[in-house]
From TrEMBL:
Signal peptide: none annotated. InterPro entries: DenD, Epimerase_deHydtase, NAD(P)-bd_dom_sf. Keywords: Carbohydrate metabolism, NADP. The keyword Ligase does not apply. It comes from Danaus plexippus plexippus. GO terms for molecular function: oxidoreductase activity. It holds the Pfam family Epimerase. This is NAD-dependent epimerase/dehydratase. CDD domains: Gne_like_SDR_e.
Amino acid sequence: MNVVITGASGFLGSRLTEALLSENSAVPVAKLLLADVVRPQPHLDPRVSTVAIDLNQPSAANLIIKPDVHILFHLAAIVSGQAEADFDLGLSVNFDATRALADAARHQVPSLRFIFTSTVGAFGGNLPPIIDDLTAVTPQNSYGSQKAMCELLLNDYGRRGFMDARIVRLPTISIRAGVANKAVTAFASGIIREPLNGLESICPVDRDLKLWLSSPNTVIRNIIHAATLPKDVLGPWRVINLPGISVSVDEMIKALHTVAGDKATSLIRFEHNELIARIVGSFPNKFDNTRAFGMGFIADENFEQMIRMYIRDDLKR
């Protein structure tokens, strides 16, 4: 299959690239195009090509959505904190570019499997105790609003047969390797990653705040799994809440203590940030994933396991 990844230079894009190129990939890749606003790093695998492209430029989408493409993983986005700070940039990158890609698919390759990564941040406000795939989106931030707009647009394109849309709402990902990004949930990785690397980390929310979490490995497996599903299994609503686990900040810190002791947890300092606390506090933290599990999606077992996974895979310890 010929595959395109947008946002390929990002954390998830890089992980997705390696997973797709691995010997046990669930998607047989013949060609893989990595696209981002800054050209992704060259890859030794001969199946890989790279391109630097601004998806908001006229006709940019048509340069990567060509008739011989079978699957698009659309990961490119302005993250939550930056989208909240710069509304026009968020709208342009998160919505306008997505529509341009969808229109390119509609006119050039309506059989395209269009895998779009949305967010649990599409929910917010006065929510029911447990969220499922059919719970109405009521975002309380610009990033969530832009993703929700994309969900509705792509679902309608899928309904009309303009393309094969598959929309997955990602939990907050923990633990991300590297450095913190501008997402309002960046602390969910920082309060574990930084202490494990001997650095101080500031937590901007209260200990009792609960988050819906997934490890990077599990998220990548689920994103790829979305591309392998039979077209008709999704039915008329092509949006899936990916499975996760509900964990409080306090439980995260206790798991860190179990793994790394006082030396690590002593490096965490609480410094309340009202904007971050308000936005993240509006996200749901309990989901009914019956539909997703029935389709073969998976969840992590517990947060301690997620920490040990980061130590093994990223810190190589």
